[in-house]
Amino acid sequence: MNPPPLVTTAASPWQPARRAARMNPSVIREILKVTERPGIISLAGGLPSPDSFPIDAMREATTRVLRDAPREALQYAASEGYAPLREWVADQMASHGMRVSAAQVLITTGSQQGLDLVGKVLIDPGSRVAVEAPTYLGALQAFAPYEPEVVTVPCDDDGPLPEALHVAKGSRFLYMLPNFQNPSGRCMSEARRAALVRSARAIDLPIVEDNPYGDLWFDTAPPPPLASRWAEGTVYLGSFSKVLAPGLRLGYVIAPPELYPKLLQAKQAADLHTPGFNQRVVHEVIRDGFLREHVPTIRARYQAQRDAMRAALEAHMPSGCHWRVPSGGMFFWVTLPAGIDATALLPRAVELGMAYVPGAAFFAAEPQHNTLRLSFVTVAPVQIARGVELLAQALKSAE
Ligand SMILES: Cc1ncc(COP(=O)(O)O)c(C=O)c1O
Question: What distance in Å separates the CA atoms of residue 376 and residue 329, rounded to the nearest whole number?
Answer without folding.
Answer: 9
